[in-house]
Amino acid sequence: ILNVEQSPQSLHVQEGDSTNFTCSFPSSNFYALHWYRWETAKSPEALFVMTLNGDEKKKGQISATLNTKEGYSYLYIKGSQPEDSATYLCAPRRDNYGQNFVFGPGTRLSVLP
Amino acid sequence: DTAVSQTPKYLVTQMGNDKSIKCEQNLGHDTMYWYKQDSKKFLKIMFSYNNKELIINETVPNRFSPKSPDKAHLNLHINSLELGDSAVYFCASSQGVGTFNSPLHFGNGTRLTVT
Description:
The structure holds two protein chains of two kinds. Chain A is mostly beta strands. Chain A has strands at 5-7, 10-14, 19-24, 32-38, 45-50, 56-59, 62-67, 72-77, 86-93, 107-112. In chain B, strands 2, 4, 5, 6, 9, 10 and 11 form a seven-stranded mixed sheet that branches. The termini of chain B are far apart. The model of chain B has no long low-confidence stretch (mean pLDDT 90). Chain B is 0% helix and 48% strand. Chain B is mainly beta. Chain B has strands at residues 4-7, 10-13, 19-25, 31-37, 43-49, 54-56, 64-67, 75-78, 87-94, 105-106, 110-114. The chains are: A mainly beta, B mainly beta. The interface between A and B is medium-sized, with 26 and 32 residues.
């Protein structure tokens, strides 16, 4: 079973704070790294898919970076809002057929107004 | 225009029964998945299927079996339900083969309660 780690496990910040979390994964057989946002009582939604070492992606106030050589990715949220409260999941893709998506345990973010 | 749809949304049943959860996607994807949200709220992969190959997580009991009548459907059959099967089950799809930047699209989940 693939070992995907995310830290911190949970995070409480005040509205307007900036924050970041980490996803660590084995660097071998790397094809892509996915980030998902999972709100309570909903289903996960894709934020980013990154494939190249050094990739940076941005969506609004959320951005992500990727280091495939050392096997980690950072997710940044600038100026957190209460609606950013969710669990953020990462999942590395390690095969050509997309048949082995194993999710990390997630980072649960709570943004307090 | 729902992309990935699961039915039913809620399923309450008794121990020992056999039940199915249906999943359909209209995105033209070639790969479908079943995930279980476990008691710690983690998403655990159960199966993936791309109409040529079924990959089974070896930790999944053989009471669980996926059935794919065609490329757009991957149903989950569960035999002899046990209390520990109570969970939320998510179906997902993606364009798997050769498209590394294709994200997963999830259904809304099925909450299974075994009494």
